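To fix ideas at the outset, we first show an illustrative case, written as a sequence plus integers encoding its fold:
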Amino acid sequence: MATTFKTLLNNDRVTTRTLLHESIPVTGTIASGTYGDNNIKNYSHGMFQSVYDYPYLSSSANHIFDITCGYSSDYSQSIATQQEKKLNLYDQMAQILVGHDETGSIRKFDRDGDLTGGEKIEQAYFFCFSRLLSKDEVKKGTFTMSFMTGGISANPGGNGGSKLTLGDYNASTNYKINSPAGEYGILYTSSVNIVSGTGVGLLYYQAGIAVISSSIFGSASYAATGSGLTGDQSHYNQWEFGAGGTSVERTSVWPVMTGTTIQNNSDAVRNRLVSIDFNNTTELNSTIYFCRTNHNEFNYSSNPTYVTASKIRVKNVSSDTPVSYITSIGLYSADNELLALAKLSEPLKKDPTTEFTLRVRLDY
């Protein structure tokens, strides 16, 4: 226990913030087939699906993200599978990530981030990344997500094998802050398509949630042909439906979202996932203390064994210069209670002819 203390002044400490980044690549094979779906966990409530990097019964398995889907009440149907859950999931996500308007109503996800107007994302898939992956936040401008997006069935020669990559392009300097969940960026199909109102998803950086519009999985140009269906029914043979901008596409929710369970929707999206890439961010806050020992300070040790028979052990004659060895630095509270202890890699010899400034860093 120290017997001599020195007060740290304001000039003796400074606070800093360091951002550490880690590259996170997730291949589509992890989510769709590498482990024969043994790494995919479904629940009895049927409201979302969890993806692990190994079979989830393994002790080494890590939860990496959840998938779910939902749509707004404007698209409610008289007969739909799990409709109440899908409506509730959309409202829950919107309430947390978008918030409420001045009337207390839940806002909808907005394609360009202008919450007062613009085209909305009414039907969406939600990817909720685990804290293990996203850490404190996703680094802006690093996120990309690729899917196979074409239709199936009656038009296999069309865009069935097309690959679409979404990214938060230009988000490092152009992101939104009007969300109760923190900052978010708009996902575009390419860096050359950064036009207001053309976003196909949203990425909430601190929450670690990607909201993907269902419109990326189908459009009027992918409509099935020769099936005897007309109008918005022409999408029935599509794997997905869309809300890509035409009045027809906005008239109803397409059959896959309404006619199948959340689990089946999650399976379909998961098996079309090609890759996910982003950098996460760990925010490291630090306080640095500059512990200064002047020439006339700390030349005597506070260790009781430093003195024997009232004599300093390291002095042979009384005229010798006092010497001590600094081995550790203690940070104390105002009432002299030890709060933190820093150890030096090797002792520093201290006598009246030397001075030191020792830098102690506390990370939190």
User: Anything to note?
Assistant: The first strand starts at residue 13 and ends at 27. The longest helix spans residues 83-97. Residues 151-160, 219-253 have pLDDT under 50 and may be disordered.
